[in-house]
Every structure is written in C-alpha cells, then in structure tokens.
Amino acid sequence: MRRWINVFCPLIMIFILMSFGFNSASNKIMEVPFTLKVNEPTAVLFPKNKTIFNPVMVAPPFLGSSYIGFKEALAFKESQGDYFTINALGYLGKYQFGIGTLQLMGVYNATRFINDPMLQERAFHTNIARNKWILRRDIKRFNGKQIGGVKVTESGILAAAHLAGAGNVKKFLRSLGEHNVSDEFGTSIANYMRKFSGYDISFISPVRNPKI
Fold it and tell me: N or C: which terminus of the chain carries fewer CB neighbours within 10 A?
C-alpha cells in the first residue's frame, strides 16, 4: 500500500500544478469584452448642487456689456461665481446676499437659499429691479456725470447699491462723492461704480417692493 501511495502522490501533485498552469495560460489569452474596454477618459457625474472651484480661473468669462455680463462679473467679484459659499460675515451664495436683504424680497430660509441656484438668480434679478425703483430719480439725474473722477452710469449705480445699499448710494451721489462708505473688506462705493460702469441693464424695469 505504501508503495502505491509513493507512486500516486507525485502524480496527483503534478496534475494539480498542471491545472493551475492551464488556467493561468488561458487567463493570459482571454480578451477584455469590448463593452468593458476603456478607450477614453470616463465622464464623472458630480452632485447637481455643487460647483467645482477651478484654481486656474482668474477672470470671469467675457460676456460683453450685456446684463449677463454684468451679473457674472459682479458674481465673480463677490464669490468667484460659487453658489454654495458663505463668507466670514455670513453673506450667502453667488451674489453674497445678506439675510436682511433677502427678507425684503420674501426669502426667509437661508438653507434653502444657499442650496437653490435658481432662487439665487431670481433674487439677484428682483433686487436689481428693487434698487432701480429706489434709485430711479438719481439714475436719471446723475447718469453720465463725473463724481470724484468716476463716470456715473446706471450699472455702476446698481452695482454699488448691491454692495452698500441703495440708501448709501443716494448719499454718495447727492454729496458728490463725499459720502463714500466701504464694506468690511475695504471696497468702496466709488470702486464698484467705476468697476461696473457701462453695462446695459436697461431692459430690467424698476419695481416697487418686488417679491420673489
């Protein structure tokens, strides 16, 4: 019996090793199915409610002097166009709205606002119409004039109102630049009036106490 064991054990071991060899050989020649081949970069689906910060981007896309160009340039200055950012002072979203301003337009839920890009766009449009109503007489009176070396335009006035509030812009214009307040980061009304001059936002109608 021991003799038979001595004969068959080596044969069994050889058979097992040969079977592994055949398997590995067959694996080597197996082709990847066409549907599983990767021939190009794979598209990645990011969450719908998130934007991606691009550290290479240093300026907003050029959109000319249109209303879209105006709002995108202003958004880039405020937040680099990020809908989901909140700054150190609690200002919200792409256009950096304060909750007090939002409440004037009927928005009371900050969480909903920061997670809803369409709501943010509507808030911006509504706020432009609101400020245009408040400043309608000043726009008519000062548009095209020079104050403190700054050419006054409708878009510059409304950009400055977004920064400092319509009341402060009225004081700036009526004091001929003496009342030139700045925000917490040192940006003044005159800065915004100069930076955002010359955009065409004439199609937005002034609205008294608009709501979203």
Answer: N
CB distance 107 to 123 below 8 Å:
yes
Question: Judging by DSSP bridges, how do beta strands 150-151 and 146-147 pair with one another?
Answer: antiparallel
Cβ proximity of 133 and 48 under 8 Å: no
32 and 115 co-located in one domain:
no
Using DSSP, state whether 204 is helix, strand or coil.
coil
Same domain, 72 and 11: no
pLDDT of residue 65: 86
Tokens 């006035």 sit at which residue?
A: 157
Does one domain contain both 80 and 170?
yes
Q: What is the spatial distance between Cα 140 and Cα 133, in angstroms, rounded to a whole number?
A: 11
Cα distance between residue 119 and residue 4, in whole Å = 86
Dump strand ranges (E) for the chain: 146-147, 150-151
Beta bridge partners of 97: 92
Closest to 90 in 3D by CA, of 58, 67, 114: 114
Model confidence at 85, pLDDT cuts 50, 70, 90, reads very high
- What is the model's pLDDT at position 6? 56
Query: pLDDT grade, residue 14 (50/70/90)?
Result: low
Number of domains in the chain: 2
Compute the distance between CA of residue 181 and CA of residue 55 in angstroms, rounded to an integer.
Answer: 31
Residue 146 in 3-state DSSP?
A: strand
